[in-house]
Amino acid sequence: MGMTGSNSRKVAVLMGGRSAEREVSLSSGRACAAALRNQGLDVTEIDAGPDLVQDLRAAGPDVAFNALHGRWGEDGCVQGILEWLSIPYTHSGVLASALAMDKERTKAVYRAHGLPVAASLVVEARDLALRHPMAPPYVVKPVNEGSSVGVRIVRDGANAPALSPDSPARLMVEAYVPGRELTVAVMGDRALTVTDIVTGGWYDYDAKYVPGGSRHVVPARIAAGVFDACLAHALAAHRALGCRGLSRTDFRWDESRGLAGLVLLETNTQPGMTATSLAPEQAAHCGIAFPDLCRWLVEDASCGR
After folding, report:
1. Both 153 and 271 in a single domain?
2. Which residue is catalytic, options 25, 196, 272, 305?
3. Residue 127 bears catalytic tag
4. Active-site annotation holds for 281
5. Which of 181, 184, 250, 252 has the highest CB neighbour number within 10 Å of its CB?
6. Cα distance between residue 161 and residue 188, in whole Å
7. Which one from 75, 102, 174, 250 is the annotated catalytic residue?
8. What confidence score (pLDDT) does residue 132 get?
9. Does the annotation mark 188 as catalytic?
10. Would you say residue 290 lies in a domain?
11. How far apart are alpha carbons 136 and 34 in whole angstroms?
């Protein structure tokens, strides 16, 4: 079931939620709701909480626009609820969402499809605090969080990292790849373009969301072979994971090694959705205005994704 009827069709925009990315999701949701109203649609904003099912039944939407980020909204959980309620929804389905949210399993899919990744392993947090699991420098990150939540770099000569008491029990340790941060959004079956994300250091949470924390060069001014490889790899990752609608795949590129220095980091099935977020910014570069992108996602919505 898709969004093929008149402008009176009802859309519920799901936002907020209970993940570490709640505030980012609220920004995405409000921006998308405003864009869809601009398109003449009947929009209800729902802050996804314990009463989500009741809220959805009360709203009676034809389509749910998923603007949630992080756990419970991006990992297949809310997708399963929407499947159960037979409400068509945007972005990826249950399996693709669950796979992409789990960095370990995402990497297994990448490897199976011949996509380049950095060396990594999953360790118990209690063991990481005792010894280095690989030679520094390396990156420590939660297995199932987004927006660089909880990510840290262990530099050469540093001690094994001291972890906070609320650290996840299992963590991914990944070889640090120096160089540039690149990203590609995929819309349907089209890789849009490559963005070079320029920061003063690591592309952490503040660099992503604090004004002035980063600068986006669109399209990236990089070698044509690397540019084309990013497009091809992002589309291959989107397909391999079974993504639908809009996704965004992030890369690190050590330009000193040429094409051999390019690795995939992760695929986001619920990329940020304000007008200046990375994926909408790429869509705008390709001539797709933010309200039209939001409308396209609604028209693409379905169950059984």
Report:
1. no
2. 272
3. no
4. no
5. 184
6. 40
7. 250
8. 93
9. no
10. no
11. 46
Q: 37: burial class by Cβ within 10 Å (0-12, 13-18, 19+)?
A: middle
Q: In 3-state terms, what secondary structure has residue 75?
A: coil
Q: Which of 45, 75, 145, 266 is catalytic?
A: 266
Of 16, 19, 21, 76, catalytic = 21
| 109 and 238 together in one domain | yes
Name the catalytic one among 22, 71, 244, 248. Answer: 248
- From 110, 138, 203, 209, active-site residue: 209
CATH, residue 221: 3.30.470.20
Average pLDDT, the chain: 91
Q: Is 209 a catalytic residue?
A: yes
pTM: 0.90
Q: Please report, for residues 22, 188, 296, 297, the alpha-carbon distance to residue 288 in angstroms, rounded to integers and kept in the order given.
A: 27, 13, 10, 12
Same domain, 156 and 267: no
Q: What mean pLDDT do residues 163-189 have?
A: 91
Query: Same domain, yes or no, for 112 and 248?
Result: yes
Residue from 66, 92, 144, 147 carrying the catalytic annotation: 147
Domain total of the chain: 3
What are the C-alpha distances in Å from 285 to residues 53, 176, 207, 288? 37, 31, 22, 7
Same domain assignment for residues 30 and 156: no
Query: Which is it for strands 120-124 and 152-154: parallel, antiparallel or unpaired?
Result: unpaired
Active site residue 110: no
Contact 140, 151 (CB under 8 A): yes
104 shares a domain with 243: yes
What SS3 class is residue 122?
A: strand
pLDDT in tens, 228-279: 999 999 999 999 999 999 999 999 999 999 999 999 999 999 999 998 899 9
Q: Which domain holds residue 240?
A: 100-117+178-285
pLDDT surpassing 50 at residue 151: yes
147 in active site? yes
